Prior knowledge:
Layout: H1 3-15, H2 18-24, H3 29-43, E1 48-50, E2 55-57, H4 59-87, E3 92-97, H5 99-102, H6 106-116, E4 121-126, H7 129-137, E5 143-147, E6 156-171, E7 191-194, H8 201-213, E8 219-222, H9 226-234, E9 240-243, E10 254-257, E11 263-273, H10 279-287, E12 301-303
Parallel strand pairs: 3-4, 3-5, 7-8
Antiparallel strand pairs: 1-2, 5-11, 6-9, 6-10, 6-11, 11-12
Amino acid sequence: MEMRHLRCxxxxxxxLHFGRAARRLHLSQPPVSLAIKELEQELGIRLFERNxxxxxxxxxxxxxxxxxxxxxxxxxxxxxxAQDAGRxxxxxxxxxxxxxxxxxxxxxxxxxxxxxxxxxRLSLHESTTDEILAGLENASIDVGCLFASPGLPAGLxxxxxxxxxxxxxxPEQHPMARLTRTPLEKxxxxxxxxxxxxxxxxxxxxxxxxxxxxxxxxxxxxARQMHTIVSLVAGGIGVALVPQSVQVFQRAGVVFxxxxxxxxxxxTGVAWRAGDDAPLVxxxxxxxxRLRPVAKxxxxxxxxx
Length: 305
């Protein structure tokens, strides 16, 4: 197996067309077709289902594609690290993050990293948990700060950084805003601002589960970023269950109240590719807080007062 086999596999899988894949690789089509055939023979599996009008990855091909991307990413990383070392510079690090990380440890982690590696080329990408996981898999980012995710993709590693209680964000003029603690069941008729499930499954499931334990299924009004959710609450669009650290995001027109009764918590952490021991990745991981793992009965952590 050679690197050309892996490059051809990735190109054909992304283009789903041998001709376009060949042009992308600056090759003629026969060498690309031959590379796929050789790879299938070596692995003893079919990577693609194809006929005269259609081409698609097989289930086995999807597994091989993920590993091929990881190998190519590591090769590119090795080359980049070697070039950076030769130039005497600090290298580069791409960090994907949910907005919640900026309210807690991310600013101090970046400050510590840049103090240790003053020449680092740092790129920051605010995103959602699902997109961060995809970015780690395709090597467009090196480290992700995200919500804990059920079913972490193979090839990634995860370390919990915090476990926060949820509080309710209410419009300032809401009747429940006068209470010291808010009974969740009294908000059954409200519109709940929350992530769509595919953007942040753990956060979505936590919100829905909490509401259902209080006797109702929430009417969800979707949003993608935490600061967007808080701004929509300020505009009177609805209410929201948010991690308590969001309270540092001071927004006129919003009040935050703890819940009456049970304490509902949500976990965030960092993820990276298994085996990525690049100095910048290792140093960044040293800068973040670390929580001891807890027994995982489910992805929802609920502590009752």
